[in-house]
């Protein structure tokens, strides 16, 4: 087709699609000439950087007028927090206010390392044979003391999804077998237990992704043999309505590679959904696909390819632009046939790239960087200062029972606002392999809680990678003891805020050069983490109106709440004061 003919044909098609958008949904766009962009196609949609630095200080001055960060070559520190977490941490979520992390595994195994407490009835597995299960498959772990509280679960949570309601209740969805249609609720209180509704979902959700919407309700998509999505009903109700997902149907290859899709709420209220190597923007109001993004070349990024992803911190101001920028990061993964080859005992190297895309750009394109090492099954953690920690996983193979090899012991720090080519830094290594079914989650003291790893069908110990029950904490470089005097402390802050309202935070900090250029306020929405996906993880860099002295060693920071639920869904966040890149301990704050 000559270029002139191609242009005429394309313009005609676009005009027709604009007149009748509903007639030409997602499948139509790929047929436009040159639409799918890969390394052999339209390179305008792809930008590849040179190999990156793998050590030393990657800090320096932040771009976009950012303040000079405190300098440190400290590589971080690992500490053993718990010898026995009770259950293997396949899933993790931080509960607001009570500062406890919920770990749960799969009830199908009928065993763990902690019994249900006295007075809690055992789960009846089979009423005809009177088979019972008295092991706990869910525990609350106090992130400060390590105290464990076992909880009873009846439905199977194996490979499920989750998120937090506006009032801080954890909603766990899907799972295996009889648990696949279930919605479970656990309130954030010391004496609360699970409430389970086995018929809440219209489709079976095994390996699905749950996302919080601007009004605080939930969207859930995918799962094995579930090429659709739905909206989670109110507690106690059952949903019957499904919406087909053409994206999932078109990205389902022989190894699947589109389970646990990445879903991020865009700042315009629409949903960015990434599956396998393709992504779209979906309106939860109209259920129409608004945009399809260029393909990300190189391989598969979703389960069992199992790369990881983050929505980069959202920069807000006292007065925000009409379109608030949003950028998505996708790191690691595997070649498309990695699962098949691993089944033949051929463990291919994982992907070694990180790619980011500005999803509100008029011409979005992937910008690709090279990580210091390959990564699959890793966790991506937003740190309180806005940096990102890539931790856990392996360097070869993929997700699955025994399908991952060569543990990646050393986490990598990624500074998203650093200079290209200097954003990565390899940090101190652990000595515990964290492979398939590992988790990592940021906690209020600025550390990262790391747990799990079970590549076995059940609790097994005399194997290459035993079922792992030890829990570690990792202290990122900003917790360098030499920077202790730079660490601020939030003295007072509101417990609740409303969209667009001004509020003040009092910060204790014994430093002289404190200005609105170097003292910031960040809000972090805690994630639900499993299978290398951190659902609903979100960070807001608040606009600062002023920083004024408020007595000896104290400052009053003037700021403004996020403008809407599109930018920040209602609910609980951890509020951090950050001075020259060094964060305070987080305080809970609720958007209502």
TrEMBL record:
Keywords attached to this entry: Signal
Organism: Raphanus sativus (Radish)
Pfam annotation, one family: Glyoxal_oxid_N
UniProt keyword annotation of rRNA processing present: no
CDD domains: E_set_GO_C (cd02851)
Region Disordered, residue ranges: 50-71
Domain Glyoxal oxidase N-terminal: 90-478
Domain Galactose oxidase-like Early set positions: 487-591
UniProt protein name: Aldehyde oxidase GLOX1
Span of the signal peptide: 1-22
InterPro entries assigned: Gal_Oxase/kelch_b-propeller, Gal_Oxidase_central_sf, Glyoxal_oxidase_N, GO-like_E_set, Ig-like_fold, Ig_E-set
């Amino acid at each position: 087709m000559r270029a002139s003919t191609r242009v005429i044909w394309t313009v005609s098609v676009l005009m027709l699609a604009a007149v009748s958008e509903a007639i030409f949904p997602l499948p139509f766009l790929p047929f436009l000439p040159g639409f799918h962009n890969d390394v052999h196609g339209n390179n305008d949609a792809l930008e590849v950087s040179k190999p990156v630095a793998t050590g030393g200080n990657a800090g320096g001055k932040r771009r976009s007028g950012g303040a000079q960060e405190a300098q440190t070559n400290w590589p971080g520190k690992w500490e053993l927090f718990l010898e026995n977490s009770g259950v293997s941490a396949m899933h993790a979520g931080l509960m607001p206010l009570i500062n406890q992390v919920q770990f749960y595994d799969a009830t199908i195994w009928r065993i763990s390392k902690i019994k249900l407490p006295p007075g809690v009835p055992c789960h009846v597995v089979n009423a005809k044979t009177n088979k019972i299960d008295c092991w706990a498959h869910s525990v609350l772990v106090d992130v400060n003391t390590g105290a464990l509280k076992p909880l009873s679960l009846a439905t199977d949570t194996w490979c499920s999804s989750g998120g937090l309601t506006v009032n801080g209740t954890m909603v766990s969805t899907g799972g295996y077998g009889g648990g696949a249609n279930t919605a479970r609720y656990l309130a954030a209180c010391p004496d609360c237990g699970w409430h389970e509704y086995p018929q809440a979902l219209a489709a079976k959700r095994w390996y699905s992704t749950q996302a919080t919407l601007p009004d605080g309700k939930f969207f859930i998509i995918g799962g094995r043999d579930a090429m659709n999505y739905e909206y989670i009903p109110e507690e106690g109700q059952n949903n019957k309505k499904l919406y087909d997902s053409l994206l999932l149907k078109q990205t389902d290859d022989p190894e699947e590679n589109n389970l646990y899709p990445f879903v991020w709420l865009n700042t315009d209220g629409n949903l960015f959904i990434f599956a396998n190597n393709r992504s779209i923007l979906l309106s939860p109001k109209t259920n129409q696909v608004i945009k399809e993004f260029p393909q990300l070349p190189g391989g598969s990024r979703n389960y069992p390819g199992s790369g990881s992803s983050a929505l980069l911190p959202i920069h807000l101001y006292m007065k925000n632009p009409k379109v608030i920028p949003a950028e998505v990061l996708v790191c690691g993964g595997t070649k498309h046939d990695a699962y098949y080859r691993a089944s033949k005992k051929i463990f291919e190297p994982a992907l070694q790239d990180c790619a980011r895309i500005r999803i509100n750009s008029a011409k979005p394109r992937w910008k690709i960087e090279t990580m210091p090492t390959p990564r699959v099954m890793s966790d991506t953690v937003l740190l309180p200062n806005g940096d990102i920690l890539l931790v856990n996983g392996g360097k070869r193979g993929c997700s699955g029972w025994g399908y991952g090899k060569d543990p990646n012991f050393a986490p990598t720090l990624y500074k998203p606002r650093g200079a290209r080519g200097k954003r990565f830094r390899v940090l101190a290594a652990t000595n515990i392999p964290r492979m398939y079914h590992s988790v990592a989650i940021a906690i209020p003291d600025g550390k990262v809680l790391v747990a799990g790893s079970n590549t076995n069908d059940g609790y097994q110990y005399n194997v290459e990678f035993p079922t792992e029950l030890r829990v570690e904490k990792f202290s990122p470089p900003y917790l360098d003891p030499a920077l202790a005097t730079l660490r601020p402390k939030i003295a007072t802050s509101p417990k609740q805020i409303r969209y667009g309202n001004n509020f003040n935070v009092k910060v204790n900090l014994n430093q002289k050069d404190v200005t609105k250029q170097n003292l910031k306020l960040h809000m972090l929405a805690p994630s639900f983490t499993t299978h290398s996906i951190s659902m609903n993880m979100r960070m807001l860099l608040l606009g600062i109106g002023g920083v004024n002295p408020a007595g000896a060693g104290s400052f009053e920071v003037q700021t403004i709440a996020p403008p809407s639920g599109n930018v920040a869904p209602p609910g609980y966040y951890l509020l951090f004061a950050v001075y020259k890149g060094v964060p305070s301990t987080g305080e809970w704050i609720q958007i209502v």
